[in-house]
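User: If only I could read backbone structure tokens as easily as an amino acid sequence. Underneath my words sits a plain record pairing an amino acid chain with its backbone structure tokens. This is the protein in question:
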Amino acid sequence: QVQLVESGGGLVQPGGSLRLSCTTSGTIFSNHAMGWYRQAPGMQRELVAFITNHDIGDTSDSVKGRFTISRDSAKNTVSLQMNSLKPGDTAVYYCNAGQLVSGLGYIEGDIWGQGTQVTVSS
């Protein structure tokens, strides 16, 4: 049973924008912080952004100032707005339900989406 459903990936030119969305159940949404990861071919999975159910969020240094994470409690959806995209942003992006732990940061949980491909190319 898929508990996190992602959408919004695709092919975009450098400098373009995409918006990824991740929808889940109300129970998962209200009891977890939500994170976006990405994994490029041959690379380790990287945490890109997270946001808690109290709207405390952050982005990684590699995307800071370009990507913004937000959540809509009415729709049980977390979104990742990606602007000024670069070829280096090309990866499969995954949504995750985890927790923010004081002193440790975002800790991934075992609930994952199926992944959505983002390709930045001219």
